[in-house]
Design brief:
With 309 residues, this protein is an alpha/beta fold. It has helices spanning 13-22, 70-73, 90-108, 111-119, 143-154, 181-185, 207-211, 230-238, 260-263, 279-294; strands at 2-7, 28-30, 40-46, 61-64, 83-85, 135-139, 158-163, 173-176, 190-193, 217-221, 242-247, 267-269. Bound molecules: NADPH dihydro-nicotinamide-adenine-dinucleotide phosphate (NDP).
Length: 309
C-alpha cells in the first residue's frame, strides 16, 4: 500500500518530509512519478489534474490537503467507491478565527483609512462603533465558522450564524436553511462567508443577498472566490449600500493584475492566506486514516459526496 500526493503548482516536499518524519518506512510518492499505480491505495490531493484518479485501480481514499474539498469534488471522474476525507485541525481553525477577527477590527477601527490619511499627513479622527454595537453574521457554522463566531462573541460582538441545519450555540442565534436566510442577512452589519463551495452556495454573495444586508454592511469572504459575484460587489459598494469588503479568495488565483479589486479603495485583498494547512500538524490525522483504511475501520473527517462538503 502506497500514498501518492497530487497537486499542481505546490511544493509537496514539506508533506513528504512530515509524513516520513512520523513514519520513515512509509512508501510516499508524488504524482506523476508514482508507478506502479496499482500500489497506490491512499491519495493526498490539492488541485489535482482532473481525471488523474482513474489510473489507480486500487485507490480507496482521497484526503484533501486542506479543509475544503471542492477541488476534489469538481472532478466528475472520481470512482464511486473512493472515500473522500478532509483536514480538521486546531491550528487551521485558530488561524482562521484570528484572521477574521483582525479583518473585522481593521474595518471597524478604520485602519485602512488611517493608513491612507497617514500618507497625506492628514490628522482626521473618525467616529467609531464599539464591538457591542455591531452584529457579525457568520455564513457557515461548521468547524471554522463555529470558532470564528465564538471568538467574535467573546470580544463583545453580537454574533449570528447561518447553517443548513438548526444548532444551539449559546447566545449566538443560528438561522437554518434557505427559509431563514433573509432573516439572518438582516442582522449582519458585517457578513463573513465561511461556507463550503457547493452548487447551492456558488454565487451566494450576489446583489440580491447584499441588498438584504443592513445599509453600510461590510463583506468578508474567506471561503472560495466562486461564492462571490465580483460585479455585484463592485456595484453595491459604488451604490453606497456596502461599506466595502475584505477578500482572501478569488475566482482566479493569483488575482489577475488588471482586476478592479486590486486598486479599489474600499476593497482589501489578501492572497488566500487566511488559514493555511501546516503539514506537521496535519499528518497525524492523515496517518490515522491511512491505518484505519488498512484495518477496515471507519475513516475520520469523511465528506458527504451528496452534500458536497
Ligand atoms: P464545514 O463543512 O465544517 O462547515 C460548513 C458549514 O456550512 C456548515 O455549518 C454547514 O451547515 C454550512 N452549509 C453548507 N452548505 C450550506 C447551505 N447550502 N446553506 C446553509 N449552510 C450551509 O467547513 P469548514 O468550516 O471546515 O470550512 C468552510 C470552508 O472554508 C471550506 O470549505 C473552505 O472552502 C474554506 N477555507 C478557506 C481557507 C482560507 O485560507 N481562505 C482555509 C480553510 C478553509 P451544517 O452545519 O448544517 O451542515
Amino acid at each position: 500500500m502506497s500514498i501518492s500526493i497530487f497537486s499542481q503548482g505546490r511544493d509537496l516536499n514539506p508533506w513528504v518530509k512530515a509524513l516520513k518524519a512520523e513514519r520513515p518506512e512509509l512508501d510516499v510518492r508524488i504524482y506523476p512519478d508514482d508507478q506502479p499505480r496499482e500500489d497506490v491505495t491512499f491519495a493526498l490531493a490539492w488541485n489535482h489534474p482532473l481525471g488523474a484518479f482513474t489510473e489507480y485501480p486500487n485507490l480507496k481514499c482521497i484526503s484533501s490537503l486542506g479543509a475544503g474539498v471542492d477541488h476534489i469534488l469538481k472532478d466528475p471522474a472520481i470512482p464511486e467507491p473512493v472515500q473522500i476525507t478532509r483536514i480538521k485541525d486546531e491550528n487551521l481553525t485558530s488561524d482562521m478565527a484570528n484572521f477574521t477577527m483582525a479583518l473585522v477590527l481593521n474595518h471597524l477601527r478604520d485602519l485602512h483609512q488611517y493608513k491612507a490619511a497617514e500618507h497625506e499627513r492628514n490628522w482626521e479622527p473618525l467616529r467609531y462603533r464599539r464591538n457591542e454595537e455591531v452584529t457579525v453574521g457568520v455564513m457557515g457554522i461548521g468547524t471554522l465558522g463555529t470558532e470564528v463566531a465564538r471568538r467574535l462573541s467573546s470580544i463583545g460582538f453580537r454574533v449570528t450564524g447561518w447553517a443548513n441545519s438548526p444548532k444551539q450555540l449559546g447566545s449566538i442565534k443560528v438561522y437554518a436553511g434557505a427559509a431563514e436566510l433573509d432573516a439572518f442577512l438582516a442582522t449582519a452589519n458585517v457578513l463573513i462567508c465561511l461556507l463550503p463551495l457547493t452548487p447551492e452556495t456558488a454565487n451566494i454573495l450576489n446583489k440580491e443577498t447584499f441588498q438584504k444586508l443592513p445599509q453600510n454592511a461590510y463583506v468578508i469572504n474567506v471561503a472560495r472566490g466562486e461564492h462571490l459575484v465580483d460585479e455585484d460587489l463592485l456595484e453595491m459598494i459604488e451604490a453606497g449600500h456596502l461599506a466595502g469588503a475584505s477578500l482572501d479568495v478569488f475566482r482566479e488565483e493569483p488575482l489577475p493584475k488588471n482586476h478592479p479589486f486590486w486598486a479599489h479603495p474600499r476593497i482589501h485583498v489578501t492572497p488566500h492566506i487566511a488559514s493555511v494547512t501546516n503539514p506537521e500538524s496535519a499528518v497525524g490525522q492523515i496517518l490515522e486514516n491511512y491505518d484505519r483504511l488498512r484495518n477496515g475501520e471507519p475513516l475520520l473527517n469523511l465528506v458527504s459526496r451528496i452534500k458536497g462538503y
